[in-house]
Each structure stands twice: as C-alpha cells, then as structure tokens.
C-alpha cells in the first residue's frame, strides 16, 4: 500500500474517483484535479474549475471506439465535456434548459443536478449518456471526426409529467450478440432500469431489476451482465435478458459508496463506509468464464478512519487500485496480487 498527498480532498459523493488508465480525477466541491497515475511530482497536472463555483457531482472519462478519451463533468448546473487532460472544453450544456424540455412545468428545484456518466457505442453511433435528478438520462451525440458533441435526445421510463427518482449511477456496454448496446440506469430506490438500442437513436425499454428500497449506489455492465452495489453492503450480478440474480455477495458491513469494473478482466472493486476496499473475481454465465456461476475474493484492504468515496483500476494492465476519501488529501493505492 502507498499513499500520495493531493492538494484537495474528494467531495462526499458516490463513485468519486475516475481513471482512464493513465490519469485519475475526482470532484472536490467546484474543482476537478487531474492526477498522474505514476508517483510524479507534482501529482496534479491540471485543475478544472466549474463555472460560477457550481458543485461538481461526478467526473469520468469516456472513450468512443478507438478514438481519444474525454473527461466528462456532471455538475449541479449542467454537463461539461473536456479533452482528456482538461485543457480544452468541448461541450457546455446547462441543465435547467435541458430539464425544462423534458419535464412539463418543471418547478425550480434547488437540488437539481446531473449524476451518472456512461459512454455507449453501437451501429457506428457514439453516444454520451448523463443521468439527472429528475430521472431522465440525457444522451449526447458525438461526431468522432470533428470531436464535437450535440444534445440529441433523452431516455425516460415514464411520461414526462411523472419524473423518475433521481439517477444515482449509469453504465453502458455492447451486447454479447453484437447487435446493439445496453444502458443501465440506477436510482435511489434500488431499481435498475435496462434499455437496449441498436442504433443509438431509438431506445427500447428492457428489464426493470428489483427495487427493494435499498439505494443502488453503483452499476457496471459488460456483455449481458449487470453488476450493482447497494447501500446494505451487498454486490449483485444480474442477467440483462432474464433479469435473474446470478450472484449476490455480502461484500461489506456498511453501504458501498463506489464500484469499478476492471477494463479488461472480470474483476470488480468496491469501496465502502466500513473503511474497506474489496476486489472480487467473478465468473458468470457467458461472461468470459467457464459458464459456471462463481465469485472469489481477491483482495480486502482497509484504510483506517477513512470515509471512502471512490475506487478505480489504473496503471499498465489495470494492476493498480486506488481509493479516494472524503475529508482526506491522501490517495491510497494498492497493487493487485
């Protein structure tokens, strides 16, 4: 285990650490420090300041096809897209105007915000998906040739007059059949609504995974498997087509605050309020394993007196795992066994 001191602390927000393999970033009130993956000095190579001091709710890198990655900021007041190193802003979409188009007679809401970031690619179409506090998922089209973004449409499960619960997390992945992509939208009731799209324009509503009142704090997707974290410390894996629970893990004693899926391997990392980070190796039907359902704990690391709020794989081959904590300027890193 090693630690690095960063200039600022991570905000107390779920899934508050992002990585594109080479860089790390998290939200710190209205700022986003971009941090080198290596133990270089200084650790922070750039800092993005949100407009007018607005709060940053989440940040994450998105990559479309073989193109470059982009750093996406979900803000209290809108959505921003930056180049990977935070040097140039490519999109600024104010949230009030977008929500007003989706929710009829939407009253002023001081808690209005964006939350949940996912990249979706299918049929040659590239889409950036960002969740909102009124339950809609905003979908932005991306022109890979011109490196531009434009607001395209929204995805919702109810009529616009009946907003869904606030989005807590998003995930997207190509379907195993290769015929489209899957979008998973989680909320505070524990519901995970699935959508599929063949072209990135029309979204078909799929399974709605069980809502049992436990907030779904994180969601990841790969092929036809959806992996979720909950406020009771449990991890669950679902079949996207069947909706069946494939695996349930009593992973932590308290709420899981962050979830990350390894970029290439079936390794799942979780950071929780019990001050521990756990890493799990999973083998699910059709998920690159033997076809048998299984789970194995790979690592279980503790950070004393830390309110963990983010976790990410990074480094060559994703061999490193880092965690961020609220009210702490230390970034803790481990190497996978």
Could you explain the architecture of this structure?
The protein has 337 residues and is an all-beta fold. The chain has 1 helix and 28 strands. Strands 1-28-27-26 form a 4-stranded antiparallel β-sheet, with no helix packed on it. A 4-stranded antiparallel β-sheet has the order 2-3-4-5, with no helix packed on it. The protein has one helix at residues 95-102; strands at residues 2-5, 18-19, 23-25, 31-36, 44-49, 56-63, 69-75, 78-83, 89-94, 114-122, 125-132, 137-143, 148-155, 167-174, 181-187, 192-197, 203-209, 216-222, 225-230, 234-239, 245-250, 256-261, 267-272, 276-283, 294-302, 307-314, 320-326, 330-335. Residues 157-161 and 287-291 have low confidence and may be disordered.
Care to give the gist of this entry?
By secondary structure, this protein is mainly beta. It has one helix at residues 95-102, and strands at residues 2-5, 18-19, 23-25, 31-36, 44-49, 56-63, 69-75, 78-83, 89-94, 114-122, 125-132, 137-143, 148-155, 167-174, 181-187, 192-197, 203-209, 216-222, 225-230, 234-239, 245-250, 256-261, 267-272, 276-283, 294-302, 307-314, 320-326, 330-335.
Q: What structural class do helix, strand and pairing data support?
A: mainly beta
Provide mean pLDDT, rounded. Answer: 88
**Count of spatially separate domains:** 1
Q: What are the low-pLDDT stretches, counting only 5+ consecutive residues below 50?
A: 157-161, 287-291
By CATH, the topology is Methylamine Dehydrogenase, Chain H
Question: Strand order within the widest sheet?
Answer: 1-28-27-26
Number of helices: 1
């Amino acid at each position: 285990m090693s630690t690095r001191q960063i200039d600022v602390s991570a905000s107390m927000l779920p899934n508050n650490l992002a990585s594109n393999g080479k860089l790390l970033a998290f939200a710190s009130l209205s700022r986003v420090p971009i941090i080198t993956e290596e133990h270089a000095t200084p650790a922070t190579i750039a800092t993005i300041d949100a407009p007018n001091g607005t709060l940053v709710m989440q940040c994450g890198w998105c990559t479309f096809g073989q193109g470059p990655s982009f750093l996406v900021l979900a803000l209290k007041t809108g959505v921003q897209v930056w180049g990977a190193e935070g040097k140039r802003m490519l999109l600024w979409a104010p949230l009030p105007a977008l929500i007003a188009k989706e929710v009829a007679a939407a009253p002023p809401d001081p808690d209005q915000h964006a939350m949940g970031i996912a990249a979706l690619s299918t049929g040659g179409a590239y889409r950036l998906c960002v969740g909102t506090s009124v339950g809609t998922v905003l979908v932005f089209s991306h022109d890979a040739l011109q490196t531009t973004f434009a607001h395209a449409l929204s995805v919702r499960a109810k009529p616009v007059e009946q907003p869904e619960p606030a989005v807590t997390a998003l995930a997207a992945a190509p379907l195993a059949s290769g015929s489209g992509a899957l979008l998973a939208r989680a909320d505070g009731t524990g519901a995970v609504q699935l959508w599929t799209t063949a072209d990135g324009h029309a979204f078909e509503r799929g399974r709605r995974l069980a809502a049992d009142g436990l907030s779904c704090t994180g969601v990841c997707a790969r092929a036809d498997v959806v992996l979720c974290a909950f406020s009771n410390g449990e991890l669950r894996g679902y079949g996207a087509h069947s909706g069946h629970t494939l695996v349930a893990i009593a992973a932590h004693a308290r709420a899981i605050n962050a979830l990350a899926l390894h970029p290439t391997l079936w390794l799942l990392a979780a950071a929780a309020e019990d001050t521990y980070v756990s890493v799990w190796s999973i083998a699910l039907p059709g998920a690159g394993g033997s076809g048998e359902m299984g789970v194995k704990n790979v690592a279980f690391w503790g950070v004393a007196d830390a309110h963990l709020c983010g976790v990410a794989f990074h480094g060559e081959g994703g061999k490193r795992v880092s965690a961020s904590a609220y009210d702490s300027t230390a970034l803790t890193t481990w190497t996978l066994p």
